[in-house]
Specification:
With 280 residues, this protein is α+β, with helices and mostly antiparallel strands. It has a domain at 72-239 and 251-274: Clavaminate synthase-like (Double-stranded beta-helix, 4-Layer Sandwich), CATH 3.60.130.10. It has helices spanning 30-43, 55-65, 133-138, 142-149, 158-161, 166-170, 216-230, and strands spanning 7-10, 17-20, 45-48, 68-69, 76-77, 80-88, 113-120, 128-132, 152-156, 184-188, 190-192, 199-201, 208-211, 236-239, 246-250, 254-258, 267-274. It is globular and about 50 Å long. It binds succinic acid.
Length: 280
C-alpha cells in the first residue's frame, strides 16, 4: 500500500481541507510534494496547523511546491526578499487583503498560489474567507455561461497599488513601489484550470476593471452581479488562524478575503507567492 503523508479533513462542503499529521519543517520527498499538490488541486485551499517555520523552512517548503515569485508591492521581510509581510499593527485601521480578491490577476501570467504563515494572530478575529470560483461558475445558468464564454476582462494593478490611490494611502509603509503599478492584463472571464481542466469564473472586485471592448459603465452591472453571486456562503470556507497555521490557496480557482475585525490588536503573517503558468 502507498504511504500516506497526511490526514485530510475537509473544512466545508465547498472547498478547503486541513492536512494534519505532517511536519513541514522537515524536507519533503517528491511523493509528499506530489500528494500536497494533488490535495491543493482537489480542495482549492489547504491548511496546516502548528507549523512554526523559520523563514528558511518556509522558503524550503515553497521551493518544493513551485517557483517563488517576488512580490513588487509588499514590504519584504528583512533579509528575505522572497517573503512578503502581511502586517496590521494595533494602531492601524486598514488591513491588507480586506475584500474579495485573487492575488496577481493583474499579471498576464497570474500567480499559482500563495503560502501564508501566521506568526502572530489576534486573540479573536482576523479569520480569512475563501471562495470556490469553480462552484460559482457551475451554479450560473446555461444562458449566462454562454454569454461569459465569449468575454475577456481587463485586470489592473494601477488603481490599487499605484501612487495616490485610496488603498496606497491607507497602507503606507506596508505597500510600496507605486511606480511599478503598470500592469494591465487581459484574461478570459471563464478560464480552464491549468491542472484540473475545471472551468472557473475568473473576475474579482479588487483588480478587474471592465470587459474588453466594453466601457466601465457597461461592464459594472454584470460584474456586480457576478460578485454578488460568488458571495453566496455555500461557495465558501472560513479559516480561523492560530500562531503557526498555514494556508496555501490556489489563485486561479479561489478568491480570498482577510477579515478586518480585530482593531487594536496585531496580526502578522509571512506570505510566499508561487509563479503560475499561462491561463489564456
Ligand atoms: C492576502 O490577501 O494575501 C492576505 C490574506 C490574509 O491576511 O488573510
Amino acid at each position: 500500500m502507498r504511504k500516506s503523508y497526511f490526514t485530510v479533513r475537509p473544512t466545508s462542503g465547498a472547498l478547503g481541507a486541513e492536512l494534519a499529521d505532517i511536519d513541514l519543517s522537515q524536507p519533503l520527498d517528491d511523493a509528499a510534494a506530489t500528494d500536497i499538490r494533488a490535495a491543493f488541486n482537489e480542495y482549492g485551499v489547504i491548511f496546516f496547523r502548528d507549523q512554526r517555520l523559520t523563514p528558511e523552512q518556509h522558503i524550503g517548503f515553497a521551493n518544493r511546491l513551485g517557483t517563488i515569485n517576488i512580490n513588487r508591492f509588499f514590504k519584504p521581510v528583512d533579509g528575505y526578499p522572497q517573503i512578503a509581510e502581511v502586517r496590521k499593527e494595533p494602531d492601524q485601521v486598514t488591513n491588507i487583503g480586506g475584500g474579495w480578491h485573487t492575488d496577481h490577476s493583474y499579471d498576464q501570467i497570474p500567480a499559482l498560489g500563495s503560502i501564508l504563515l501566521a506568526l502572530e494572530v489576534p486573540p479573536r478575529g482576523g479569520d480569512t474567507l475563501f471562495c470556490n470560483m469553480g462552484l460559482a461558475y457551475d451554479a450560473l445558468s446555461a444562458g449566462l455561461k454562454r454569454t461569459l464564454e465569449g468575454l475577456r476582462a481587463v485586470h489592473s494593478s494601477r488603481h490599487v497599488f499605484g501612487a495616490s490611490t485610496e488603498h496606497s494611502k491607507t497602507v503606507t509603509g506596508r505597500i510600496g513601489n507605486p511606480e511599478l503599478a503598470t500592469q494591465d492584463a487581459v484574461h478570459p472571464v471563464v478560464i480552464r484550470h491549468p491542472d484540473t481542466g475545471r472551468k472557473i469564473l475568473y473576475v474579482n472586485m479588487a483588480f478587474t476593471t471592465h470587459f474588453e471592448g466594453w466601457t466601465k459603465q457597461e461592464s459594472q452591472p454584470l460584474l456586480d452581479y457576478l460578485y454578488q453571486h460568488a458571495s453566496r456562503p455555500e461557495f465558501h470556507t472560513r479559516f480561523q488562524w492560530k500562531d503557526g497555521s498555514i494556508a496555501f490557496w490556489d489563485n486561479r480557482a479561489t478568491w480570498h478575503y482577510a477579515l478586518n475585525d480585530y482593531h487594536g490588536e496585531r496580526r502578522l503573517m509571512h506570505r510566499i507567492t508561487l509563479e503560475g503558468v499561462p491561463i489564456n
